[in-house]
């Protein structure tokens, strides 16, 4: 899913969340299919990711954001992608 609503990711194996932004680079080749987002903060800054919604609803956090269960794909550049479960935070429900 590619939407400006998503602002951060929180993979299950991480200790904290990190900001993300849409990736608008359209470059692709035989080993790079591109990505929908880039991590913009933390140790994984500039990592290419795709987000696959797995939850059935987005739930309000009580602080003006919403959280939704997802599978996060860390896109491989000439190598296999790595998939992890986690949560994305968004400005509003991803199901509106």
Number of domains: 1
Strand order within the widest sheet? 1-2-3-4-6-7
Structural class: mainly beta
Average pLDDT works out at 94
Q: Based on DSSP secondary structure assignment, what is the total number of beta strands?
A: 7
Gap between N and C termini: 13 Å
Content of β-strand:
35-45%
Shape: globular
Spell out the helices and strands N to C.
EEEEEEE
> Unreliable runs, pLDDT <50, ≥5 residues?
none
Radius of gyration: 13 Å
As a percent range, the share of helical residues equals under 10%
Instruction: Profile the largest sheet.
Output: 6 strands, antiparallel, barrel
Number of helices: 0
3D architecture notes:
The protein has 96 residues and is mostly beta strands. The chain has one domain. The protein is built from no helices and seven strands. Strands 1-2-3-4-6-7 form a six-stranded antiparallel barrel. It is globular, with a radius of gyration of 13 Å. The chain starts with 5 loop residues before the first strand and ends in a 6-residue tail after the last strand. The mean pLDDT is 94.
Strand and helix map with partners:
Blueprint (H helix, E strand, L loop, with lengths): L5 E6 L6 E5 L14 E3 L8 E6 L5 E2 L5 E9 L7 E9 L6
Antiparallel strand pairs: 1-2, 1-7, 2-3, 3-4, 4-6, 5-6, 6-7
